Amino acid sequence: MLFEIKTRAASNKIKPNYKSAVVKFLVKSKEMEKEFESFEDLLGVKFNKVLKNDFLKNESKKLELINNTGRPDLIFTYKIDLEKSFNVDYFRDTLSELIQNLKDKPVRYLDLMLPEFDHFSSKFKSERYYYQSVAEGVLLGNYTFDSYKTEEKKEKELTVIFHSSNPVEFKKSITVATNLVNSVYFSRDLVNEPAITLYPAEFVKRLRDELSKAGVKVKAYDEKELKKRKMNAILAVGGASIHPPRLIILHYKPKQKAKRKITLVGKGVTYDSGGLSIKPTDGMVEMKADMAGAATVAGTIKAAAMLKLPVELTGVIPAVENMISGNSYKPGDIVRTSSGKTIEVKNTDAEGRIVLADALEFASKGKPDEIIDFATLTGAIAVALGLYAAGIFSKNDAMTGLLTRAGEITYEKVWRMPFWDEYKKLLDSDIADISNLGPRWGGAITAGKFLEHFVDENISWMHVDLAGPAIKNDFKSYTKKFDTGFGVRLMVEYFNGIIAGI
Question: 465 and 379 share a domain?
């Protein structure tokens, strides 16, 4: 982390400390100039008139002041235009960037002065969630992945004081945000870890070490058990690696009666060379992140356990390395899955769907109310939606509607894609039940249709292809440098919708 952050909620009264920064958010309105002057009086400072006028009357959104006359040392003012530039991710994005920019500044205290919730009552679902998004911004901006840098580093302490008119409610929001973002950290750490140190057996160990502390049960099937269960799809993809595959099962059961029983399935390809259908070097660089779906499942279950949500969750993760050796599965092979259905392998680089075939069959046998799978499954979804949104595929309107709503609240965007049965024909095989690759067009949809073959048709199911937003991108300040942990906040909000009966 950039800082060792301590947080607390406080009233609107402020007394700046030595080595401190104060942040004031102003909502654009007729009263803004008067409020700005009151802020100057409160701190005993005067901003440059030209810069102040530009900030108040023009398009400038931010104004900074180095205070040479007393405390605080730094002052930041932000102008919020509710009509133009504001969305529910504003505080996450803005405060994440601020935290990153404070890294090399001599600041030990950060006072955040926040507008009244009344300004945002039509934007956020509740006052508590408004405060939560603010706390999330600070915490998301604090993430870094630097454990492999050799320079000695010591985290600086930073005390963040959230000032509002409702500190009691804000304190509750800080607790939720802390548990939630710590779970995002866990997911991000897994995805950012290099494949040389995170292979299937090590993946099991890290999940057991971390999740057991939260009361989540973790078990894993080794290659002998996979053979016994005829999980030949997982064995085929993982057969070329010196690190044999695992099927990892996570289980969280709340103490109170569960509102729903849900199984989350996550693609856990800890490294994907493409197999014999080898990728070019540029295409391999990010392939340590081909287990981002599995990381989403792990982070989501940790968050549910930490927040004590009344949903029963099972996680199913097929963990494999897709490598090259004399044991490689080959284009032209036919693989018989645990369901008995056979797959014609046309491309060994379409391996994620193959391992998910066994995982989804296993998940279906548990007879949950819902199955949701997460996978960095296709480049085609990033072509369709860019890096900003995940594609969702399902015939269940209630599930897709609830997840879409959760995406709007959390700003982890999802978009429902077509899922018509006509696409199934594109996977026909002359020599097996199904091919693992369709034609060039509609690749994300045919990949989803492939998975559909292995889910019990009586169980509500949704497939989430997060190949775009799971990887670092420039859309937000907290997604720029490191792979993102996309989906954890999204799924917690999805569960909150279930709990609320939406």
Answer: yes
Q: Do 338 and 420 share a domain, yes or no?
A: yes
Q: Which of 59, 62, 70, 54 is nearest to 98 (CA)?
A: 62
Per the structure, the count of domains in the chain is 2
User: Interhelix angle for 127-141 vs 90-101, to 10°?
Assistant: 30
For the question of residue 353 being annotated catalytic, the response is yes
- Quick: pLDDT tens for 13-50: 999 999 999 999 999 999 999 999 999 999 999 999 99
- Same domain, residue pair 133 and 271: no
pLDDT in tens, 109-130: 999 999 999 999 999 999 999 9
- The residue to which tokens 């594609």 are assigned: 391
Give CA–CA dist 120/254, Å, rounded.
Answer: 33
Question: Is 291 a member of any domain?
Answer: yes
Residues 327 and 395 in one domain: yes
The strand pairing partners of 26, in sequence order, are 79
pTM of the model: 0.97
* Cis amide leading into 72 (omega within 30): yes
Greatest alpha-carbon span in the chain: 81
**Is residue 172 one of the residues assigned to a domain?**
no
Question: Which structural domain, as residue segments, surrounds residue 71?
Answer: 3-167
Q: What is the CATH number of the domain that holds 53?
A: 3.40.220.10
Structure tokens at 467: 């190949």
Is 260 tagged catalytic? no
Query: Closest Cα partner for 445 from 373, 384, 374?
Result: 384
SS3 227: helix
H or E stretch at 190: helix 167-192
Q: Which of 188, 246, 353, 472 is catalytic?
A: 353
- Which position among 19, 279, 476, 481 bears the catalytic label? 279
Q: Quick check: is 324 in a domain?
A: yes
